[in-house]
Request: fold
Amino acid sequence: MPENSIDSLLRESRLFPPSNDFAATSVASPELYERAAADRLGFWAETARELLHWHKPFTETLDWSNAPFARWFGDGELNVAYNCLDRHVEAGNGDRVAIHWEGEPGDSRTLTYAELTTEVKRAANALTALGIGQGDRVAIYLPLIPEAVIAMLAVARLGAVHSVVFGGFSAESLSSRIHDASAKLVITADGGWRRGKVFPLKPAVDAALGMLAASGAESTVSTVLVVKRGENDVEWTEGRDLWWHDELAKADPEHEAKAFNAENPLFILYTSGTTGKPKGILHTSGGYLTQAAFTHQNVFDVHPETDVYWCTADVGWVTGHSYVTYGPLANGATQVLYEGTPDTPHPGRWWEIIQKYKVSILYTAPTAIRSFMKVGREVPDAFDLSSLRVLGSVGEPINPEAWIWYRDVIGAGSTPIVDTWWQTETGAIMISALPGITTLKPGSAQVPIPGVKVDVLGEDGAPVTPPSGGALVISEPWPAMLRGIWGDPDRYVATYWAKYSTPQKSIYFAGDGARIDEDGDIWLLGRVDDVIKVSGHRLSTTEIESALVSHPIVAEAAVVGADDKTTGQAVVAFVILRAGKAEGQSTEETTTALAKQVTEKIGAIARPRQIFIVAELPKTRSGKIMRRLLRDVAEGREIGDTTTLADSSVMSLISEKFHAASGTE
Ligand code: PRX
Reply:
């Protein structure tokens, strides 16, 4: 538990009650909390019936008899894609824009609900023709183009399971994910646009499949479907590779959505944990879609007829699953999708997009906000942002300073800001203010949404008495909860349910430290395990260490997450080299080679900000690396208590090296 951060936490006295105007028209009402408190399961059942179309209505809300393996709405049947598409067209909203897509080079496309439905139907027929059916796994490795959403929905429509892999992950990461899920088909693109250039994707798929073949693993992938986007040259494996546009052109535009059980798997999404091996988080259909739709509607106050919503996340992350694809489309909302980086070709690109499409709801990450703060308010001030009326934040704690800047500069000093806490595992938002209802408190994620029960537990496993800090747990099952780790039920139980559950009650441990204040508001204090957050992206220090030690010149490595003004945390590595292996190389050449190693093994997102070559690592007498001390060094603090170190001189040597390299005397 990060005791020091609990103790030094700021008290926030700036409070922002909802304006009467906002409250008068907000979707959410205080009655939601009352209904959920009176009958939690009844509340979720009503919500599921109200927000979704059930081909076969459910009669059972929750089966928790085999806890922690849950079944929600378990005898009901639905089609997730039908809920996101066809029913809006059938209701007469086919002409409503579903996606305003903006390519990085300035090209754009608009897809109405009718057009998106037709594309998904064609894609579903094309996938069927390629042998994809219920339960088959399809890997998706695409840039942020409409085809990413179309591919996800086409897979969902067939009752198959998608595993989206973020385009920034390396061939090796992709290959292990394809292998773990035994994917039958991969959907990729030639390339996508980023920072003014085409970044190739197809070569990574070729390399990933090549690695699998070389490892002797049985090949499960029979087809690679390639979307044309980057127009870059790609190699072609006849008999395996097909162009997306050719297959869709051949496909029938009609397709009837069949009903699947509410617990039919919808997707697997890999996320870093405390070991070197990412976990395939499994989500299913009915409960997931219920909570994604409910939270999207109420947390962002979405009025589908008038709002233009923009979530800046990539579909490679869970935020892109729940708040780009499933939540907004289930609610029939109009949204913006943007392919590229915020500063290409100019630093005002995002604000220009908001002005162009009159975006009214913006959902983004603290990292982005902090990097805009750094550049200065002149950039957003040059654009008309008056359409914005709700702002959201996700992925890491938003510091009060960034919160206030977000509200003042982007939100004209008046928009509500919702700081939403959730995880890949929770599937949907769990803790957040509701705009129009909650009095906002900068820096705090505040309160669980209606129907969700969380607690902050002390060392003894009992809820702490506010104001106090402890471990954040979820004390009742929730509809969008993960249903397991793909192929590893034991790891599911051990990772999330072992620490605080009692024989009477299964309790989910989120892995975050939290503080609950006098008002009952929750403040997130960061991870208490070896997971770190860089620009809101989840990385495992152990996984980065494994990548480093797999380089022949490395004997040992320790990686820590150090505070970073812009990215929240940054990767800092301490590396011991094998004697004689890096001879003749300058330190710079060595660290460049090691950074490259991490990029190749995991992806550029895991590339260390700094790598220090050291002679020794601080260890306890039992040989455990003391990361706390390394973090002190990496964050430029006085080194903490070293009395348990086997050799305390190690630390002063490391610290000297660090200060010399970073020029911080
Ligand atoms: O540490 C918490 C942090 O992100 C973790 C979950 O990461 P991931 O599965 O990648 O999902 C990110 C997007 C939902 C959490 O355990 N986190 C997420 N949102 C917040 C947050 N920390 C503080 N405040 C938040 N609003």
